[in-house]
Amino acid sequence: MSADCQRRASPGIGNSGTLEMIIPPNRSISGTVNPDLRNIPQTEKRWLNDYQMLHYVCPHRASISIIVSQHSNKTKDRVWDFACKTSFRGLINCSWTDYVNNFDEGINFSCPSKSLICGLENLLDDKHKDRRWKFYCCQGDDVCLTRCIWTPYINKYKEYFSWQVPEGSHLVGTVCYNDDQRGQRRWQYRYCAMDPC
Known about the structure:
disordered N terminus, 4-stranded antiparallel sheet, globular, mainly beta
């Protein structure tokens, strides 16, 4: 079993591939939230980075489908968790981008044509209390992206959020606004349908 599959089978992530996360009470949640994520005890929450460098890649032929993040006032940083869904059937070609932003700068990124976001990595800098991001993009044979949509901002500063890519669509990009005064980011995501060319 690959390391990615082992991570996905660890406590906190169910066999269905969805994150088993509780949505904290008294929190406003932005975006589409899977109702199955509501009933897991708080102690079952698992984060992938624990306020350190984050590296995450979906299993082969899958793309990121759920993004969950929690801010800490103590560390002035976020922890993250993700789930994936099968997106490709045939051969795929994947590659990492370079870092797409500098510390304290915004992000405006979409994978190259016909590609989906299938992984990500970020580098934390304690001085800036910020992260630089790179993305793992995968492209399938004979597929085209159609009906692409940008979400509005899905979180407020320092807000917990859980967002799910709508059914029948796949994650292809993100825009992130950075506020130096708050030391925080607000996120938008771009998703598309994927049809045969």
